[in-house]
Structures
1.
Amino acid sequence: MKLEGATITWLGHATFLVETPGGKHIVMDPWLSGNPKCPEEYQALNKADAILISHGHFDHMGSAADLAQRTGAPVISNFEIGSYLASQGVENTIGMNKGGTVTLGDIKITMVHADHSSGISGPDGQTLYGGEASGFVVTLENGVTLYHAGDTNVFSDMAIIRDLYAPDIALLPIGGHFTMSPKEAAYAVKLLKPKAVIPMHYGTFDALTGTPEALQDLLAGESVEVIALQPGGQCR
Ligand code: NI
Ligand code: MN
């Protein structure tokens, strides 16, 4: 897979840093401090131009407020999560919903469906309504298109994501239990037809047993590259 000037770094679990050809830093599903798979050198990440949150679970937004504070970057999420973060003192929030697109210079960030829940763990341990779970399609300045699926099961409308945005590279959860396992993720690949897949959301907790090798086996003979990164590993 050639990203033509972009770099994707996996920070463990569902957290990614995308450095775009135009030099923008996009952080997806920030869970840095407290993420057992986030490399030490990224835990105090202090550069971001946009912070994307797919849904309200702690393992996808646990570091969002801190990172927003350190960087001043806008936090892009569904409307409900944006309102929650604003109530917690985050100043720069962009609440949106599925089908909407936010631009960052020449970069397009589109919110798409995910089949998952989105409750927010409130400060007193209660679960707050967090809207619906989502994924993001990000089209970079050079036209390379990424799809971060968030947490999701496979769903048939992934075929619409394929038709509308034709993602070159799909970041897909494979751990199972809370999301797709390799079986469902392999079906998702058949709907999305990306050139490459980066597996995520596995191995962090004991329950997340799916492996990139299992996904690779299920996709034998398909023309898709499975890129199994180590936390801190990069794809360019
Ligand atoms: Ni989740
Ligand atoms: Mn999760």
Note: The longest strand covers residues 107-113.
2.
Amino acid sequence: MASTSFNPFVMAQQQFDAVAAKLGLDQATCDLLRNPDREYHFNIPIRMDDGSYKVFRGFRVQHNDARGPCKGGIRFHPQETVDTVRALAMWMTWKTAVVDIPLGGGKGGVVCDPHHLSLREQEAICRGWVRQIARNVGPIQDVPAPDVMTSGQHMLWMLDEYEKITGMKYPGFITGKPLGMGGSLGRTEATGFGVIYTLREALKELNIDIQNTTASFQGFGNVSQYAIKLYMDYGGTAISVSCWDHKEQKSFTYRKKDGLNLNELLEITNRFGEIDRQKAMDLGYEVLPGEAWIEQEVDILVPAALENQINANTVNSIKPSVKLIAEGANGPTTIEADQVIQSKNIWVIPDFLANAGGVTCSYFEQVQCNTNYYWPLDEVLTKLDNIMTKAYHSVSELARSRNLYMRDAAYMIAISRVAEACKMRGWV
Ligand code: NAD
């Protein structure tokens, strides 16, 4: 979430401006791409369980749809701001472009705290959100998905409301639906696995055998759990992971130097991705401060929790042993930290490339829904691996051939593709 000191939209625009200058983009294209195409801000009035009425604020930001319908999640969060939604919408445009799927970028949100809302109240917010925006979203306009504190159930309520309004079945209106209700196999694993497909390719290029590597992860939620699983299946050793502890209101790092046992950790983790500290100690884990995840003597760091985690204050804690950072989270690294990482010669797989597996599988879900034919898991994962591997190599080839930082190379590919689509359409 945005704070007064960290504004993700300012960061997203700064990243864009720097690459636009390197690409020599003309003024009109810059003006077009550094701001969203359209924004919708609206009220969602709800009757609460106690009979009172409350009005929630909703957003949908459509950053760019030159390459296809907008695509992006809907977040429910008490500190949601339109700037966070704008930044995430812009990053979605680059994400869909860098993996070369025919979609644009969008994002939505509602300022609310699901911890203090009943399921009926949450359902009313979902239905109210769709009623306010139904004319401006849809399977060939803008396709929403779950994000922070929204789930497959929320998506199904939204789909149901959309189908009531249109009077037709449109399962491709929204993705992240439960299996059997239009969801795709592999969606749960997709983001974490995608991070590791790109990591596997990067290690091959660096001539490092994954089986001789160690890694430290920040976050133990959806992305991190599946990333750790595939990394360990490939023979890597994950030695530490940090996560939030809601009782203590701070994060902790859990370490076992000879390797985490994923299954035993999953057994003591709640649905918010929080490890039970006492049980972890009983199992022999060292419990270290939250920031210790970044200070480990490992080969690989995987930030997979929040934005703004590798910043001017933390970047100098990275040990010389670290050769690679694979960004599972969105926006985990600030521009100041990027400069230090570059000077340390650490290879980075930037967020909108590394974590694009989720949106790629959402795209598969949409394709399956639109054709009303569903693929088996191995077909989904093979297609996902192919797309992530190809996208990784096009970015790394550009980075190597032009001696660019990986983030800049990824931005150059994504921004060029979107700028080209805008030009071909005659927009600028
Ligand atoms: P999640 O809610 O499932 O898990 C988040 C994890 O981060 C939890 O383990 C939580 O305890 C931990 N965490 C929270 N605050 C922390 C802190 N201060 N220090 C350490 N750990 C902390 O979320 P997720 O779906 O795994 O998403 C993680 C990141 O990946 C986010 O930036 C998200 O935007 C990004 N992302 C997710 C997907 C997806 O498909 N889930 C796709 C693309 C990007």
Note: The radius of gyration is 21 Å.
3.
Amino acid sequence: MKFFIDTANLEQIKEAQALGVLDGVTTNPSLMAKEGITGKENILHHYKAICNIVDGDVSAEVIATDFDTMVKEGEELAALHSQIVVKLPMIKEGVKACKYFSDKGIKTNMTLVFSAGQALLAAKAGATYVSPFLGRLDDVATDGLHLISEIRQIYDNYAFETEILSASIRHTMHVINCAKLGSDVMTGPLSAIMGLLKHPLTDIGLAKFLEDYQKGN
Ligand code: E4P
């Protein structure tokens, strides 16, 4: 299972990278705005900075909603760095653009996916990644994990190569449950990754080991 971090915060990306378990980064316009990164040139510069920190794929989202401008923006993003994955919204024009980019061998991430039907279309269009938004479904009292299992089943039935990138992860149990369901990738905040570390018995056990070592020295 690949671990992506879902942020545009360079310090958090560096911290996850330093742990040695990071496979990539996802961003979106809201995450960029949260870091105060605004304006096209600053945003493009920030994508490059992220690519220079991590080794893996970095999703960069188009803003356009029509095919021609999506293609123009996506090509510009893809030309920035070899690690860039063009992130496209799950709308009709986005599906067309996904097919365009996959035919050209440019990696894509279909975002804002909330149904199995949308995920099936993304795979048919040759998406590299499909991003079902688990947490946002949970937010509206719908079982986000059920969607992950439906997509897994559909993709396995037909050996689709599109990777399931479970997105909108909010906490460590989302990560664990996605792993149990066979999600290829998860993207979440640093807290969800670091939360996997924690267990009070580990801390108690380590304190006892160190205490006993000190007694004999
Ligand atoms: C996915 O790529 C999105 O950036 C993200 O996971 C959305 O998460 P949120 O629902 O916590 O905003």
Note: Residues 139 and 184 are 23 Å apart (CA to CA).
4.
Amino acid sequence: MIFAANFKMHHTRASTTEYLDQLDKLLAEAEYPFKTIVFPPATALQPSREWITVGAQNAYPEERGAFTGEIGLDQLKEFGLDTVLIGHSERRNILGEEQEFLAKKFAFYAGHGFQIVYCVGEPLEVREAGDEAVAEYLWEQFDGIDLDYERLVVAYEPIWAIGTGRAAKVEEIAATHAELRRRIARPILYGGSVKPTNIKEIASVKDVDGVLVGGASLEVESFFSLMVAIAPPQV
Ligand code: PGA
């Protein structure tokens, strides 16, 4: 299982450092076989910890250059980071990132050997149109993406489930992950209102290899409790 925390525009440098310190300690004590990734905001980027991989929520597909407001490979390398999130629906929809640009980012960071958590997800009207419409929509979001890239992690995040408190139903998750699994051998995470009360049933769905968590990851106790729910520490 992979547990990934997406802070979005929450947490400062100081609170992120405190969070990572606390979580790393809990993980060291629990000795979980889980992989843990935390995506803090760009200003709080810092080296990965012993038990936590730190990743960037976004990065521009260049080493450096005239790209006002962006960070690139040089800025990530300063912290020894090699994990990046690409294609989150907030970047697609709010920041207007197009598929072609996402494919360019993917190719650039894959070319530099990064672990890439690549997000896809459909809006509500597509979900309401049925499984076939969802499949078609999602596969289009893989245009230009190398599905065989060895450090690819896919995150399926239905847009209507993100931050709404309404996670997809287990049947919807199962059907969608099975569809993605037809062509993707790499880990597939589910994201969208994952919380301590639904983690167990979501994690038990076939082809769910982990979760990408927003709101419920912001407090260490809450994020850690997702892991505890699946595997209570041995005493
Ligand atoms: P949420 O966000 O857990 O708050 O729904 C998930 C995400 O956007 O990655």
Note: Residues 10 and 172 are 29 Å apart (CA to CA).
